[in-house]
From TrEMBL:
The active site is at residues 8, 10. PANTHER family: FRUCTOSE-1-PHOSPHATE PHOSPHATASE, GLYCEROL-1-PHOSPHATE PHOSPHOHYDROLASE 1-RELATED. Substrate binds at residues 8-10, 24, 43-48, 51, 75, 113-117, 144. The lineage of its organism: Bacteria, Pseudomonadati, Pseudomonadota, Betaproteobacteria, Burkholderiales. The record marks 113, 144 as: Important for catalytic activity and assists the phosphoryl transfer reaction to Asp8 by balancing charge and orienting the reacting groups. Keywords: Magnesium, Metal-binding. GO terms for biological process: carbohydrate metabolic process. Its cofactor is Mg(2+). This is Beta-phosphoglucomutase. Belongs to the HAD-like hydrolase superfamily. CbbY/CbbZ/Gph/YieH family. GO terms for molecular function: beta-phosphoglucomutase activity; magnesium ion binding; sugar-phosphatase activity. Binds 2 magnesium ions per subunit. Mg(2+) binds at residues 8, 10, 168-169. Transmembrane segments: none annotated.
Amino acid sequence: QIQAFVFDLDGVITDTAKFHFIAWQKLAQRLGFDIDHEFNERLKGVGRMDSLNLILQHGGVILTDEQKDKEAAQKNDEYVELIADMSAADLLPGAREALESVRGAGLKTALASASKNAPAILARLGISDLFDTVVDANLVVNGKPDPEIFLKAAAQLGVSPNACIGVEDAVAGVQSIKNAGMYAIGIGDARVLTRADAVIDGLHQFDVNRFIVKD
Ligand code: B16
Ligand code: MG
């Protein structure tokens, strides 16, 4: 019996990837190289420091740990400035309706995001009150595909993982859900999200009744 849904943020509820891209591109250019949109795809769902390491590798640049901390902080300052202008207009189609339908069916909702900025983004989008609990990167040690973030969300909800459904757009995110022992809904291309139990184009196609059994 399904009791809760655990949602990823970027690519599911809103598109922050475009803001991350602008800030990462600035960082790359400071260091003398470029990143493109295709490369940006590899950063989706990947935490801040792991993303920085992938970018540095891509540009063939080696930095000390101290320099990395400084660059990551500057990137985040720029990113925070970009997301300050976000509003409900930045919700992806069907996102609010999906959250409301889950709650309307008497189920719990959680957010599982690799972003340390997740609570601030929910506030900007005006949907903080639609989540029973939020697990962001500040609360976990291991990034996706490790199951830690989804398991922590289930624990905070007080629900067994096998009574949860996870919703993710990234390959590593779907793996994290499956590693946690949950049913996985993928958002995107079924040929890419091969481990997902079901794949839809976006939350505008989400129908809670398709995934729960009513008694
Ligand atoms: P921050 P998600 C992820 O969000 C993004 O997809 C990823 O590109 C980003 O690097 C990561 O959050 C960390 O974000 O720098 O704000 O802590 O998809 O897990 O919601
Ligand atoms: Mg995502």
